[in-house]
Design a protein that fits this description.
With 483 residues, the chain is α/β, with parallel strands linked by helices. The protein contains 16 helices and eleven strands. The two termini are 23 Å apart.
C-alpha cells in the first residue's frame, strides 16, 4: 500500500481547486470592470488575490495530507501534481494580466511590491519553520493505552465463533490446537462410531505423560460437542492412565476395558523451540494429533501449533510484558488468499503507526509534516515483531486471516518521525525551486512583453498580448507535466 508523503492532488479531481478558481475569477472581473485608467484597482486586486489564495491553500493543506483516487488497492492512472502549484500558476496568470493591463504607473509598482512581500513571507514560513516531534511522558501514556482499546474492536473474522465452526491449519498455542481437534473428532469421527447403537457411550482418553489438566479440559470438550451433535444416551469421557507396553491398554479391569469401545490418544510431533522476539522466553511449535481407536480401526487427525500468546489474548499479553511498547494489527475481512490477508494486516499496521506519529508531531509548522507511512517504513524501521497467519477450511473454500505484532518503542517512533521530517525538508527545498521557476517565468514574460511593446511603439500591443498569453498557457501546461 503506497501512501503519498507530499500533499498532491489529481488534475482529474478538481473539487479542491474550485474555490481557488472562484477567487481568481472574482479579482480578474474586478480588474477588468473597474481597473480602466485606475491602476490602483489592479494593484488592490492582485494584492488581495495573493493574500486570499494562499490562505485557502494553507487551510486545504492543514485539513488534507493527500487525496487518493480509487479503492480496494486499485488507483486511477491520473496525473498528480503538488497542490500548491495550481494556485501558484493561477496567481502568476493574474499578475501577468495586471502587468499587461496597467503597463506602467504607480499601481504596477504597488502590485509587484505586494507580490514580493507576500512571496517572501510565505516562503519563509513554509521553508524555514522547522517541524519537530513531542517526547513528553504524556504522549507515551496515550500510546500505551491505545493498542489495548483498539484490540477490543474485533471484526467478524476474529470472532471466537469462527474457530469453533471451522478447523484451522495452525493455532497460536498447544491448548488451542488440542481443543480444536477435540471439537473436530467429537463432531465427526466419534459421531460416526456412536451411530452404531452397540458402541458404548463411554469414551476413554489415555493420559500417557501429558498434563492431566489439559486432558481433563479436552475430555469436557469431547463430551460437550459429542452430546450436542449426538442422539440417545449422554456421552462421558474419562481420563485413564494407560498401562504396560500396549499404548491402548488402561489400568481398568477387563470388564471395564471390554465395555469401553472408543479410545482417544493425544500426541505431539516435530516439537521445536526458539527465542521469542518480544522477550527472552522461548516459544514452542510443532504438530498436535489425536487418534481414535474404534471397532473398525484407528483414525488420526492433526494440526500445527505455534506459541503466539499475543494472538490469543492481547490485553493479557500486554499485562505480562509491561516493559514493552507493543500494538496489534489484524486483517479486517475474510480473505480468500494469504496475500490479501497480509495486505490488510499491513494496512492496519501502517494506519496505527501513522496515528502514533501524528500524536508526536508539534503543531507549530505552517505546512504540517505528512506522517503517513508505507510498508517499506515498517520493514526498514523493524516495527514488525512477529506475525501469525491462519487458514480455515471454509464451506466455500479456504478463509485466511493474519495478525501482526508491532514494536512501537519510543526510539523507533522518534527515528521514523525524524526520517519523515528530513523527507519533508527535502520536499520543501524542491518547492522553493519550483517557486523560483514560477517567478523566473513571470519575470521573463514581463521583460519580453515590455521590450517588444517598446520596440513596436505599441502598434502591435494586442497581438503581443495574445501571443504572450498563448506562450504562458503552453508554459503552464509543460510545467504541470514536468513537475
Amino acid at each position: 500500500m503506497m501512501v503519498e508523503t507530499v500533499p498532491r492532488i489529481a488534475i482529474g479531481l478538481p473539487l479542491l481547486i474550485i474555490p481557488i478558481f472562484l477567487i481568481i475569477g472574482l479579482f480578474i472581473f474586478a480588474a477588468v470592470k473597474f481597473g480602466k485608467d485606475k491602476p490602483w484597482v489592479i494593484a488592490v486586486s492582485v494584492g488581495a488575490a495573493v493574500l486570499a489564495v494562499p490562505g485557502v491553500l494553507l487551510v486545504l493543506l492543514n485539513v488534507l495530507h493527500f487525496v487518493g483516487v480509487g479503492g480496494g488497492g486499485a488507483r486511477l492512472k491520473l496525473m498528480f501534481v503538488p497542490v500548491f502549484l495550481i494556485p501558484g500558476l493561477l496567481i502568476l496568470g493574474l499578475i501577468i494580466f495586471a502587468v499587461i493591463k496597467s503597463g506602467k504607473g504607480k499601481g504596477l509598482l504597488v502590485a509587484l511590491g505586494v507580490v514580493a512581500l507576500i512571496a517572501v513571507v510565505l516562503l519563509g514560513a513554509i521553508l524555514f519553520t522547522r517541524p519537530s516531534v513531542r517526547t513528553q511522558k504524556q504522549v507515551m501514556q496515550i500510546k500505551l493505552r491505545a493498542p489495548t482499546a483498539q484490540a477490543t474492536k474485533e471484526s467478524a473474522i476474529w470472532h471466537e465463533g469462527v474457530e469453533k465452526q471451522f478447523l484451522a491449519d495452525v493455532y497460536p498455542s498447544r491448548r488451542a490446537a488440542v481443543l480444536a481437534l477435540g471439537r473436530q473428532i467429537a463432531e465427526t469421527t466419534i459421531q460416526s462410531y456412536l451411530a452404531d447403537a452397540q458402541v458404548s457411550r463411554q469414551i476413554a482418553l489415555l493420559q500417557d505423560d501429558h498434563d492431566r489438566g489439559l486432558l481433563t479440559e479436552l475430555a469436557r470438550q469431547i463430551e460437550q460437542y459429542s452430546s450436542q451433535h449426538g442422539t440417545g444416551k449422554p456421552i462421558t469421557c474419562r481420563v485413564l492412565q494407560n498401562l504396560g507396553s500396549d499404548p491402548w491398554r488402561t489400568d481398568t479391569d477387563n470388564t471395564m476395558a471390554t465395555q469401553l469401545k472408543l479410545w482417544v490418544r493425544l500426541g505431539f510431533d516435530d516439537a521445536q523451540t526458539k527465542r521469542m522476539s518480544w522477550n527472552d522466553d522461548k516459544a514452542s511449535s510443532g504438530k498436535v494429533w489425536l487418534k481414535v481407536k474404534g471397532p473398525d480401526g484407528i483414525s488420526s487427525t492433526e494440526v500445527r501449533f505455534a506459541e503466539k500468546p499475543w494472538v490469543e489474548s492481547f490485553p493479557d499479553f500486554l499485562s505480562s510484558n509491561p516493559s514493552r511498547d507493543l500494538a496489534l494489527a489484524r486483517s479486517a475481512d475474510s480473505c480468500i488468499s494469504r496475500q490479501e490477508a497480509h495486505r490488510q494486516a499491513l494496512a492496519d499496521a501502517t494506519s496505527r503507526i501513522s496515528q502514533m506519529l501524528r500524536s508526536l508531531q508539534r503543531d507549530s509548522s505552517v505546512v504540517p509534516v505528512s506522517m503517513e507511512i508505507t510498508e517499506n517504513d515498517l520493514s526498514s524501521g523493524k516495527f514488525i515483531a512477529d506475525t501469525f497467519t491462519q487458514r480455515f477450511s471454509g464451506l466455500a473454500g479456504p478463509i485466511w486471516r493474519e495478525a501482526i505484532l508491532i514494536d512501537t518503542s519510543q526510539s523507533k517512533l522518534n527515528k521514523l518521525a525524524e526520517r519523515k521530517i528530513t523527507i519533508t525538508r527535502e520536499k520543501r527545498l524542491d518547492w522553493a525551486k519550483m517557486a523560483g521557476t514560477l517567478i523566473g517565468m513571470f519575470a521573463l514574460i514581463c521583460v519580453v512583453y515590455l521590450f517588444l511593446n517598446a520596440a513596436t511603439r505599441g502598434y502591435y500591443a494586442w497581438s503581443l498580448r495574445i501571443v504572450l498569453m498563448a506562450v504562458l498557457g503552453i508554459a503552464m501546461f509543460l510545467f504541470l507535466i514536468l513537475a
